[in-house]
Amino acid sequence: MISGQTPILILKEGTERQQGRNAQKNNIEAAKAIADAVRTTLGPKGMDKMLVDSIGDIVISNDGATILKEMDVDHPTAKMIVEASKSQDTAVGDGTTTVVVLAGELLKQAETLLEQGVHSTIIADGYHLAVVESRKELGELAAKANDDKTLRKIAITALSGKNTGVSAEFLSDLVVKAINAVSEERDGKTVVDTANIKVDKKSGGSASDTTFINGIIIDKERVHSKMPTVIKNAKIALINSALEIKKTEIDAKVQITDPSKIQDFLDQETDTMREMAEKIKKSGANVVLCQKGIDDTVQYYLAKDGIYAARRVKQSDMEKLAKATGAKMVTNLDDITGDVLGNADVVEERKIGDDRMTFVTGCVNPKAVSILIRGGTEHVVDEIERAMNDAIRVVAITKEDGKYLPGGGAIESELAMKLRTYSNSVGGREQLAIEAFAKALEIIPRTLAENSGLDPINTLIKLKSDHEKGNKTFGINMNDASISDMLSLGVFDTYRVKTHAIESAVEVATMILRIDDVIASKKSSAPAGGAPGGMGGMGGMGGMPPY
Ligand code: ADP
Ligand code: MG
């Protein structure tokens, strides 16, 4: 078929392309580089990164996902790792650094095998066998409980090392309170919908002023200074249309021939607006929360009637309020009756820092709670917010699952030992891959040791011998730089986070391993944001994934 001498060019001349081992090597280097960039942040003694953008704005964080999100990553393989970390964050909310560090190490270990002539598909197969075995082992190693004490420790472990400027114990109490408030039993199962927890932040004050509120905070003040600041036994109207006279879309001219008619016209407008306030009052409402604007005249009449009103309340807050207070949102004021009003014990304006906010507390349905984060600067409240969001997710998951794992690298050491035994039963070249996988897992205790200033080699040797003696829950004690029992120390990792992290790391590592051809492609017209699942396989004629 191929006609002799003329070479067939399927790619334009000058197209950038890397093939075979070269492509693999390059990809592995990129993965290792990205892992190295976040390694020093792992664990409570991890360092922070300061990310500076081109206009000088800074983000200071210890959170892997945040750092990677802010980093300007260019290499396609590095981007795949960043994606894996992001999807870990979306799925379980923590363990983002672990995914990256582990994926980097799995590839580093694979590289040694590639150099020994083990084919990448064999390595991938071995890694997959190891994942299946790990899942089984982790299920057996998990401790079972979801009482408050356990949940608090889960929160503390997730919060430790975050630059919150306040004790993890203090914040963990708030998290556990919030989780318990929104936790429900459905069909004999515990379900925690974290969407019912509203995390708000206001810079100013100190981090220790962060509070739990059994209700909803709205970042709006009352519209008129003559309105009461506190309403007890609140009857709340949620209105999602403007309490104003509608301005016509097109410029309209009203011709008034008689000067006395001007007053009539204005009076008529005032009447309409007074009627609006009257309709609200007649329904029995003493609080109005409006998604749109409220005209000065309407404000005046509402204030005169002693009604509390706030305007331009966010849609998402309106929805939460509806759920919590039992109010039905109304668009047409004629629909306002006692039936559509919601209830809360207190609606109150409180001064928070330089701002005033509306607090709706003691709702009929208590399954809507808030945490108001305070802290000296924007950077502090932002970092506390990220840390709290992580903690809320992991505590919710643990409350649902009712199981957890010892942290501090204990579980990785134990798993590595179990996998080495298992690899003997597999044999062949896959055995080598499973051993490499076991070795890669040890990057977690090794890094934790390094980050707490311990000698990594000696620590790992000691840790291994402890596990061989049957001390399954021993890990790196970062408080006093020793090796001790993580369960009695209270360093608890989230079961679902850990299993997900291992699985995601293996998934992305094997995907990268299978690539043996990197070709610069035409500007992609494929939809953006897709999973990089389409990549891989030989040749990869589709070119690079659409990042
Ligand atoms: P990730 O983004 O992966 O969650 P972290 O920086 O939160 O990364 O570090 C998580 C690791 O730190 C886990 O392996 C956890 O067990 C460990 N860790 C957390 N607190 C402690 C502690 N007090 N002592 C030892 N290890 C800890
Ligand atoms: Mg974490």
How would you explain this protein's 3D organization?
The chain is α+β, with helices and mostly antiparallel strands and 547 residues long. It has 2 domains: 22-143 and 406-519, GROEL, domain 1, CATH 1.10.560; 216-365, 3-Layer(bba) Sandwich (GroEL), CATH 3.50.7. Helix content is 47%, strand content 18%. The protein contains 17 helices and 20 strands. The strands form 7 sheets. The chain has a 6-stranded mixed sheet with strand order 9-14-13-10-11-12, with helices on both faces. It has a 3-stranded antiparallel sheet with strand order 4-16-19, with helices on both faces. A hairpin with a 4-residue loop joins strand 17 and strand 18 (482-485). Helix 4 runs antiparallel to helix 13 (428-441), helix 5 (120-141) runs antiparallel to helix 17 and helix 8 packs across helix 9 (296-304). The longest helix is centred in the middle third of the chain and has 25 residues, at 259-283. Bound molecules: adenosine-5'-diphosphate and magnesium ion. Adenosine-5'-diphosphate binds at residues 41-44, 46, 64, 94-98, 157, 160-161, 407-408, 444, 448, 476, 478, 491, 493. The site of adenosine-5'-diphosphate has 22 residues, from helix 4 and helix 14.
Would you kindly provide a brief summary of this structure?
The protein is α+β, with helices and mostly antiparallel strands and 547 residues long. The chain has helices spanning 20-39, 64-70, 76-92, 96-115, 120-141, 148-159, 168-182, 259-283, 296-304, 315-325, 378-401, 410-426, 428-441, 443-451, 456-468, 486-489, 495-513; strands spanning 17-19, 49-52, 58-61, 143-144, 183-186, 189-192, 197-203, 211-213, 215-218, 230-239, 287-290, 308-310, 342-352, 355-363, 369-375, 403-406, 474-477, 482-485, 492-494, 517-519.
